[in-house]
Amino acid sequence: MAASSYSFIFSSRWMRYIVMAIVAAVACGFLANWQNNRREARDAEIARINANYHGAAEPLAEILPETSTRLPEDLEWKRFEATGTYDPASTVFIRNRSVDGQAGLYVLVPLRTDSGAELAVVRGWVPPGQTGQTPDLALLPDPPAGEVTVTGWLRVPQDSPDETVTQNSLRSIDPQNVPGMTDPYTGAYAQLDAEDPPAAEGLTALPPPSTDPGSHLSYTFQWIVFGIMILGGVVYAARRERISRDLEAAEQTGQAATTQYVVVDKNTIAAGRGRRAAPSGPSRGTRYGSADPRRAAARRAGVEDRTRPHTANRIAPARRRPGSAEEAEDAMLDEQGF
């Protein structure tokens, strides 16, 4: 098909379709780029977590030189080491914390370091009490007594300055809200890895950080595919309409075509004129007469005899093969009175 057969796409209806398809495809492109940026950010975060989580432990004083120093986000899950003594009397629970899909509580115990500053240490996880409330503090395993060396990971605190302690529990991990901490590290809290010497009875350890990349990559490809499908759908619809228009035009052309007729002079047919030259030898005759003079004379006599009032003397025409074209022609001439 010629390219001009697609000229209908310049109509107002098709221009609206095309514009909407382009806008939708561009939107899909932006969404794909957004998901790809999130994927890249998540990949960078995973790389940072792995480097900090599995790195060598560094002294707490080197990572946080001041108690008010805010832990940078790129040092999240930084491995540290500190020496001090626990303060079990200031233990609090952190509510609504799950491990392996089971709801429970974190157990937070302040550690007074050698420098005199206090670090909030999450030592582990416990299930809720029998009534669903916070368990009895007296039933918890005791932390190591005396001086202990703690190794773990530093986390960014969950700021909640207006929260108050309820039944020895908090909703968020904010060192400023932990009772008994007079000089806390306000910019970070710790998640326990190991203690030296170890406790006589430990708590359920917390799981490592998630390094799941998520579905950002698949979403990126999905948005790209959606954009391609939208543009491809417009191209497909345009092709279908072009084919439909071509078929409709062909049908109209076929209906407008006139039937051709051959006009033959009846006198010529009656007189047997215009017949072909007689071939040599015996012949079965031509379309408008017989090559045999006797058969031709008989046919002329038969035609003339039709004007007589009596039909007894009519000369019968030459015998034709049943169903032949000549027999059909003779029947037509008989009906028209020739």
From TrEMBL:
Stretch list, region Disordered: 157-179, 272-338
Biased composition (Acidic residues): 326-338
InterPro entries the record matches: Surf1/Shy1 (IPR002994), Surf1/Surf4 (IPR045214)
Polar residues bias locations: 163-175
Transmembrane segments: 14-34, 219-238
Subcellular location, record wording: Cell membrane; Membrane
Pfam families, per the entry: SURF1 (PF02104)
Alphabetized UniProt keyword annotations: Cell membrane, Membrane, Transmembrane, Transmembrane helix
Key word Membrane present: yes
Lipid bilayer topology: Multi-pass membrane protein
Keyword Transmembrane helix: yes
Similarity field: Belongs to the SURF1 family.
Name of the featured protein: SURF1-like protein
